[in-house]
Target: Transglutaminase domain-containing protein
Amino acid sequence: MTTATRPTTVFVLVNTLLLWTTLAIASLLVWPIYQSESLIVLLVASILAGSVIAIAGARFGWSSATVLLSSIAMFTVLGVPLAVPQEAAFGVLPSIEGLRQLFVGVALGWKQLLTITLPVGTYQALLVPVFTLVLFSTVLGLSLALRSRRGDLAVLAPLLVFVFGIAFGPDYTTRPLLITLTLVVVCLLWLMWRRWYRRRVAIDQLAGASSGGAGGTGQARAVASDHRIFGLRTVISAVLILAIAGGAAAAAAVLVPPEGRRTVLRTTIEQPFDPRDYPSPLSGFRRYLQQPTDNEVLFTVTGLPLDGRVRIATLDTYDGVVYSVGSEEVNSDSGSFTRVPQRFDQSAVAGDEVDLGVEIVGYGGVWMPTLGKLESVEFTGDETTRLRDSFYYNDNGGTGAIVGGLEPGDGYQLRAVVPDQPAESQLGDLTPGSTNLPSLGVLPAELELVLSEYTTGVEGAGRRLVAMLDGLRLNGYISHGINEEDPPSRSGHSADRVTQLLTDQRMIGDAEQYAVTAALMARQLGFPARVVFGFVPTGAAGDGPVAVRGEDVSAWIEVDTERYGWVTLDPTPPVREIPEELPEEPTVVSRPQQATPPQTPDDVAAPDETPLDSTQEEQEELEEWVVILLTVARILGWVLLAIAVLISPFLAILAAKSRRRRARRRAPTALARIRGGWDEYRDAVLDHGFEPAPTATRREVAAKVGGGKAAVLAAVTDRAVFAPADVAVEDADKVWRAVVELNASLDTGATRWQRLKAAISTRSLGGYSVSRLFKR
Model:
């Protein structure tokens, strides 16, 4: 529905400026999603384009269909250079591939935006959702403001952008109070101006109509004066209200600031990469040490720092069988794997920034070699697009993954921050951090006993941690159990294997077992700990490439500390000669057998004695019957409890009506009892489905029900209420006997279900004060 008159220039200009202002304020919440200059260009161009369509439609009286087709045409022309700039021909013209991504992004870009790490920049076609929203919101909002009789709904346009910025934005807040208050204030000012403008137009029309008669000029001036006074009062009132509301909101935000991270769409949507779908990389530890993989070049790295450790995967979930990569579905502190369009903000990480180049040679699998905390990654080679589109990263654990796996010839350049680590002398001062890792499934037997042997008499969490590591390094020996000359060393890191490591005469294993054991012990000491599977190249670091071979495989642990965050610790003992195993059992000396003495008569049971087993069997049978009875009683108890829960609301209604009836019948005066009697009858009428008017008199209610007795009761009640003399107690008793009979007559001819429905009806309780119901 559109206005009958064409909008004036002032009306168009003010509405346009206010819409632009509110859209600009709402777009501040969109910035954290993209953080790109291309977003600013997109917002300006789409708002201007949408405004041109809306103003032209209002100026030339376009139909809704014409406005819609014009908007779609503008979307097609501007969509590729603004929302898919990497596919624009010559930077400004749409291309076939760009148009395909543009229209696909309208349908799929919203979900893709939730499964990727922020900020997304101009990655793929992820600018399409915001371009679509802003362009069509501008057209719709300004068209409503200029043409519709419900033009106040135009404020919904910036609110849609505002909601988009919150719902699709990060799970942390960015000046939400200031932005929200500013947007609310400008929207309210917009609505107030529109109200003032409508009133001014109406007054001007009234003044023009009245100016033709006698004294019309004076009346027009008076109306205009009243209009100015009313407008001034409106502005002053609005300013005061906004000031009070803004001050209260600001004070509340200061006194009760928001805590933690907020829940947005990206925190609830299921991520496309779930590490639980893949086996634990630590389970294949020994295969890297077998021939020919042990001497095979898996990948080369360039720019590796001295003593650098290449991470393959971070494992924080242990179920007693394997240590696996955690998932946010199980524990939020495990983090989730999300796509990385541009970069990770690691400005809060204290450490050295490194540039690492990786070339895949013989390595394969979904887990991607990384280092430190990733900031950005750029893929090289022939499969650049495939690698970029299938790369996921978990910033909590520093683990990268390629869906479909890495292949020989793949390569990438990554920039990362290697966090600062405490010196060896500072380890004793470490205190546990606050990370909440997934709970441990099964603890190996003897773990706590051995841990207590290592830490007895040691005070302080950090010193106990150091003592535990020293104990493993001092008592442990390295053997992979692959070659014939190696002492037996079973692979795996299950609870049974860790128990064997700790209870065997010689503690023999490799980094797989020692890392898992140390992580479990650190958890027992109060430190959040996790296992890291990766490679520690033996080649010297330098400018040239370092070849990483299978024999460089390793595993270590990281513990979360209050001061340093995650600290890297290697519990693996040094390689040294393994001593010979001592005999398991000493030689047993044979002793001569002793003759068994004959039985005495006392040892033989009397024939009439009841065997002991008979009593036990009877007791077992008795206990079995008791168990059955208890089970039946428990089931009946739960059934009765469920029935009681189901019928408790109806019992409460019946109890409330009974309490109400008793209170009315026992009122302190005869007049109050008569009034209560009529009220009781009227409530019964309501519960039985009659619908007298809320203001109906007693006679009208009686007429609605019908019957002479109801009319008599109404007349008696009116006479008692309006009579000047006092009412006798006997009259009150007669009224209540009549009420009982009339209420019973209402059930005459009704079915059992109808009577039950009336008994539990709440219609008569709707207007009855709860405080009156339970008074006395």
About this structure: The chain has 22 helices and 17 strands. Residues 612-665 form the longest helix (54 residues). Residues 252-257, 587-622, 768-776 have pLDDT under 50 and may be disordered.
